Fold this sequence. Notes:
Number of strands: 28
Number of helices: 23
Shape: globular
Distance between the termini: 35 Å
Helix content: 25-40%
Strand content: 25-35%
Largest sheet: 9 strands, mixed
Amino acid sequence: MRFFRSVIFPPNLCVISSRRQFNPSSSKPQESTATHAVRRNVPAMDVAVNRDAFRQAVANTLERRLFYIPSFKIYRGVAGLYDYGPPGCAVKANVLAFWRQHFVLEESMLEVDCPCVTPEVVLKASGHVDKFTDLMVKDEKTGTCYRADHLLKDFCNEKLQNDHTLTAEKAAEMRHVLAVLDDLSAEELGAKIKEYGITAPETNNPLSNPYPFNLMFQTSIGPSGLIPGYMRPETAQGIFVNFKDLYYYNGGKLPFAAAQIGQAFRNEISPRQGLLRVREFTLAEIEHFVDPEDKSHPKYSEVADLEFLMFPREEQTAGQLARAIQLGEAVSTGIVNNETLAYFIGRVYLFLTHLGIDKDRLRFRQHLANEMAHYAADCWDAEIECSYGWIECVGIADRSAYDLRAHSEKSGVDLVAHEKFPKPKEVEKLVITTVKKELGLAFKGNQKMVVESLEAMDEKEALDMKVNLESKGEVEFYVCKIGKNVTIKKNMVTISKEKRKEHQRVFTPSVIEPSFGIGRIIYCLFEHCFYTRPSKAGDEQLSVFAFPPLVAPIKCSVFPLVQDKQYDSVAKLISKSLTVAGISHKIDISGATIGKRYARTDELGIPFAITVDSTSSVTIRERDSKDQIRVNIEEVVSVVKEVTDGQSSWSDVKM
Length: 655
């Protein structure tokens, strides 16, 4: 067993300690490594060194105890691919089980399971074929590929943190580059890389100009190769294309939510940061369909009083820090767009903190204007701080009606909902009348697709077109099915509003989408739960994962105090009873000392250890406090079940 000596984690820089990590009642916010270092006047370089050392200590323990390892390790592995070992699989299964309980069961969601292989036409409609790209550069001599924005970002951050000769003017310029990084075109990104003299990290060779690289894995469906497809980059599209059937299954009622857990694939240019950026990963996604005219939520009051770190876009652009905001206040002041979006933000907060994520290193950051898709009403990311910085782990977005409209237009199938009126209503109805002769002359074989796109416009888009046609005589219009803009002239379409009596309202629902990166959440959980403590002799540091029982890979261990046939028999009897009760456990009847066996189980994050030291009663030891209680053998399973199921706390059973 490998241990990490205290020199790795000096007290003033320890990212996590058992006492600081698990103290939800404390009124004092817990500090990040960087904040703590600044307060103690520790040089920035020391912060980076200790952060790297902490990360390496966590990684060493995770790999040695087989939580996860590089895939195809005997063949030197492939970047961005990892295998979960037995304890890692158990943690992941527990996280997903709680996700289902917290969201699918609690909200009566409709769970689906769709194929990973997706026909090209589906991803063409969603925009992934044309737009799911990153800008890439190549080492001109070796051909090694890098994400262009990552190289520029790393260069600017390195200069800002460590170059003391940097002028105030140059520092301000680099901060501006970081702020607008997502908005830079390929040409602008390339110009900055050349201006700053950025070269390939490993070789210092010159780099090519940036160019777009589609992140999807392409394949073909069937032996003919005539049906192009991709490995899905997200699970959401399977839900959108099934909306019509799900709506019918739900009795034609809104709102409702559909959920899916599954694998997604992204051919990352230069994967790094372990489980945080990989090429195959597990997503858990929810699509909550709601009337765009009524985004209230019946259970909003249950989360309105929650208060946690939020980072609105105005405070980001003003250079301020995230601050604690009550969720109800965020809605009433317009920081969060609507109640349904806020409800899911609150539920995500509860989900993550129940898993064991430190509430003081969890924030909800609102997307800046340059990050938002044009159709989105509002978007927030749940970001968790770890040794790599703030990591986006959950996205919660109000995607408006974009997805259903895109698939309706491409497929020709109406993906709409209906609201029946108690009695007929006189309403103003948008009427779009296309002049097929003029459209046929202009677009020939594409006439039908242009007509369908025009007739599928929503009211705002149509009225904007009407204004432009009246003032300019023509307008550029994007047609999804042919994937390009066309010029629509005034003589090709008439747009008006007429009064009609209607018995029902037909509309395209909006979608609120919480999307969870399970691997990222699990990695941050590993870091938040990891700490070291001195051995009994004080000569070495022992590694501990302080997982809550909810997610611990194994709930308890069982071992005899000493090698004795009677004790072994009692241990096996307890083991059998634990199995019947559905409690995962590990039995250890080796001859190792009790201290070493405790250390082994602590390193796996097992919260409770049952030690057999008599034939009538046993001790139960709690991992973090190391406190022990004595219980009768007949009661041991019920006591362990109580605390692992969350029915009682350790403090309760100690009384």
